[in-house]
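From the methods appendix. Each design record in this collection lists the tokenized structure first, followed by the designed amino acid sequence. Records were kept in a plain field format so they could be parsed without special tools. The example shown here is representative of the layout used throughout.

RECORD:
FOLD TOKENS (206 positions):
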């Protein structure tokens, strides 16, 4: 089976992107990282991708002002130019319009640093500690228009230690993210995890 062409969308350091690049180097991995796309010219992960010989592109969201859909159409044009089949959001800090999300239904996935549906949104580690949960972790899910709400493909739990700070907890969750994301992308690339619908509600099947 030909390897699926994947774009990784980043806004910052790109450590999850690097974990996907590493996994995709294995000859039997069912996906190749064909493009790294950022909304920020200064995203540190871009240099990492270039050093790996991966095509990179930047669509600067600030050039589009409040025109979210125009920004998303520009993203879509770049994805099409590179014949992308699956999109991985990896620390991409822009909310996408329902229009773009619909183009990629079942073919766009995201990693979130919490055990969804707990702690959607930002500052998840601080909030998990403030809530006093014993277990935290990471989730990979299909992207749907509502933020951090799509059907779950995989989760990796992390035990919270009594002396954890947001930084120590973030570091252990991040290590799990780097393990989880390549596994989840593999399932999607192989068609072993799929987004289906039941009574029009999206659902992940494995
Ligand atoms: C990760 O914690 C990811 O779960 C979240 O943003 C962070 C991105 O980190 N969505 P990196 O850029 O992959 O290092």
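DESIGN:
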């Amino acid at each position: 089976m030909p390897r699926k062409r994947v774009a990784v969308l980043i806004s910052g350091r790109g450590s999850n992107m690097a974990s996907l690049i590493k996994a995709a180097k294995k000859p039997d991995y069912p996906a190749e990282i064909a493009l790294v796309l950022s909304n920020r010219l200064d995203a540190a992960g871009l240099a990492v991708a270039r050093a790996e010989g991966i095509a990179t592109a930047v669509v600067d969201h600030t050039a589009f002002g409040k025109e979210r859909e125009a920004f998303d159409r520009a993203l879509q044009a770049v994805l099409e130019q590179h014949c992308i089949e699956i999109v991985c959001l990896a620390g991409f800090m822009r909310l996408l319009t329902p229009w773009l999300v619909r183009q990629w239904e079942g073919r766009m996935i995201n990693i979130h640093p919490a055990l969804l549906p707990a702690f959607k949104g930002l500052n998840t580690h601080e909030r998990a500690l403030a809530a006093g949960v014993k277990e935290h972790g990471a989730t990979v899910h299909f992207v749907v228009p509502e933020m951090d709400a799509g059907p779950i493909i995989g989760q990796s739990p992390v035990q919270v230690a009594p002396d954890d700070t947001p930084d120590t907890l973030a570091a252990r969750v991040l290590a799990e993210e780097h393990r989880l994301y390549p596994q989840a992308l593999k399932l999607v690339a192989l068609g072993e995890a799929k987004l289906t619908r039941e009574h029009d509600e999206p659902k992940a099947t494995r």
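APPENDIX NOTE: Residues 10, 12-17, 90-91, 111-113, 174, 177 surround 5-O-phosphono-beta-D-ribofuranosylamine (CB under 6 Å).
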